[in-house]
Amino acid sequence: MNILIPNLGSTSLKYQILAMPGEQVLARGKFERVSDYRAAIAEIAAGDTAIDAVAFKAVHAGPRYRGTFVVDDGVIAALEQFRPAAPVHNGIYLDAIAAFREAMPGVPLVAAFETEFHATMPEFARVYGVPSDWRDRDGVEKFGFHGASHEFISWRTPEFLGVPRESLRVISCHLGGSSSICAIEGGRSIDTTMGFSPQSGLENATRHGDLDVFAVLYMMDLHRWSTNEARDELSKLSGLAGLSGIAGGDVRDIAAAGTPRARLALDVFAYQVRKTIGAYSAAMGGVDAIVFTGGIGENSAEVRAACCHGLDWLGVTLDPAANSEQAGDRRVSSGRVQVLALATNEELIVARRAWRKLKC
């Protein structure tokens, strides 16, 4: 079965076509500055590789859809219901589902939700201290995201180290334009930094991280903002962009700027990662491996060094020479705790989930 996995951005479309279950990559490509998904999708459909199914790395559809599902009216309704919690992500995938249905009629579409990997979190790590109706009636709890990336790391780390998956305590740091950290014990997610929405946890490029909700209510009352106006402030102008004053919040641009605000943004980011590593080590009773992945985590020696600074007490000692290398999956530490820089492969996880779903 040939499965197309599109990775959708606000103006880009990357894709792979994998032959399953053999996991052979048949084709891959990328479209930049996409103004019309339908044109890009039609070009993929017109290619030489037959497509038997399309699988999306979907984001948020609440408690009922914390898994992998063939797209139907129920999936679409849930994506719409939870669009306010993930407006950009869900909007993109709703548009893409409509476009693929039009361009490839009859081809099954599968939504592999980011929240699936985090379904193993214990209840005490998932619930919020809010009225019970919020959770039982309206689905307000901690879902977690970047599940495909963290799941891949849960398999790749023991493979790289040559040890059983069941014996490892791993802290997976997916750092990029969107960042989160996951505590993985025996291959299972037990906690993660993102919560009900992709807004919480670490600072992202333009989205805030952890924030006292009453600060938002205060600003809405003070400025008479609507929910949409507040949502724009928090998802487009906040995070590393808000801290640094650098539009877009790209860590490379922030590092190059060198201003006091830029340095503060990087210090905040590294502190959040460091603090979370300590917390998740406590949650698991120790840590065997810390993995950096994502565009920043895999490629920035400076960010890795800043995030690991002061963690000697935990057994974390970076090897400066190894940390400065930029090629391939690698160990970048010399201490008891293994610190790795690994490339993630979200598309492979999505293809595996879709294959399992469709072969039933």
Q: Please give the share of residues in helix.
A: 40-55%
Number of strands: 12
CATH topology category name of the largest domain:
Nucleotidyltransferase, domain 5
Question: Which strand-content bin applies to the residues?
Answer: 15-25%
Strand arrangement across the biggest beta sheet: 3-2-1-4-6-5
Query: What overall geometry do the principal axes of the alpha carbons give?
Result: globular
Keywords:
6-stranded mixed sheet; 360 residues; Nucleotidyltransferase, domain 5; globular; 15 helices; alpha/beta
Protein architecture, described:
There is one protein chain. With 360 residues, the protein is of the alpha/beta class. It has 2 domains: 2-113, 2-Layer Sandwich (Nucleotidyltransferase, domain 5), CATH 3.30.420.40; 162-346, Nucleotidyltransferase, domain 5, CATH 3.30.420. It has helices spanning 37-45, 73-81, 87-103, 123-126, 132-136, 147-161, 213-223, 227-236, 239-244, 251-257, 260-284, 294-299, 301-308, 320-324, 346-359; strands at residues 2-8, 13-19, 24-31, 53-56, 68-70, 109-112, 169-174, 180-185, 188-192, 289-293, 330-331, 338-341. The strands form 2 sheets. Strands 3-2-1-4-6-5 form a 6-stranded mixed β-sheet, with helices on both faces. Strands 9-8-7-10-12-11 form a 6-stranded mixed β-sheet, with helices on both faces. A hairpin with a 4-residue loop joins strand 1 (2-8) and strand 2. Helix 6 (147-161) crosses helix 15, helix 10 crosses helix 11 and helix 11 crosses helix 13. The chain is globular, with a radius of gyration of 20 Å. The two termini are 13 Å apart. The model has no long low-confidence stretch (mean pLDDT 95).
